[in-house]
Structures are given as structure tokens and as C-alpha cells.
Design goal:
Distance between the termini: 42 Å
Number of helices: 5
Largest sheet: none
Radius of gyration: 23 Å
Strand content: under 5%
Number of domains: 1
């Protein structure tokens, strides 16, 4: 079930813009105006001022991996749009089509 949720999240990231995808995977900053239940020791005195992310949140490897995945996906997509498909990949696709056509003819 977790794999399906992960694939759904990846699909969601693929249809939105790069900036929106990065915003989804980066942890949002908590503001004191929004968080009234936080203890005074952790909250800053200036209302609306962003709090610094906690150490565990800052070093969260899952978020870092997700951020890297989104950046990698964006880079690959951008390169594909700029240069088009890889010629070797196009040629391999043609070979596959020829083999499938030959197999279809041999079954008749």
C-alpha cells in the first residue's frame, strides 16, 4: 500500500511545476502567529516571524531524498525538452517494433 501511495505522490509531482514540486517536499516554516499551542521556550517573541526548523527536521534524510528526486526529475525532463529523445533509444524502439512485427507475421 505504501508503494501505491509513493507512486501516486510521484505522479502528482510530475504534473506540477518544478517550483510547486519543491514546495511540496520542503518542510514549511512554522510561524508563531499560526502556532499558538507551542511552548514559550520554543516560540520566538515576534508574532509572524518564522521559527528555525528543528535539528531533526533540518537533517531529515527522507525530505532530502525527495528533494533530490524532484530536482533530478526536473533536470531530466528539461534536458529531454531541450535535446529530444536519445538517438540510441529511438533506434532501439525501432528495433523492438521490427521484432514485434516479425513475430506477429510468424504467428499467422
Amino acid at each position: 500500500m505504501q508503494v501505491a501511495a509513493f507512486l501516486s505522490d510521484l505522479k502528482s509531482l510530475s504534473v506540477c511545476s518544478h517550483e510547486a514540486a519543491i514546495a511540496l517536499v520542503k518542510p514549511s516554516l512554522i510561524t508563531t502567529a499560526d502556532d499558538t499551542n507551542q511552548s514559550p521556550a520554543k516560540a520566538e517573541e515576534t508574532p509572524g516571524r518564522p521559527l528555525q526548523p528543528s535539528t531533526s527536521e533540518h537533517h531529515d534524510q527522507d525530505l532530502q531524498r525527495a528533494n533530490e528526486l524532484v530536482s533530478l526529475y526536473y533536470d531530466v525532463k528539461l534536458k529531454y525538452l531541450e535535446t529530444g529523445p536519445d538517438p540510441d533509444l529511438v533506434q532501439a524502439g525501432k528495433h523492438v517494433d521490427q521484432i514485434i512485427a516479425a513475430l506477429s507475421r510468424s504467428k499467422r
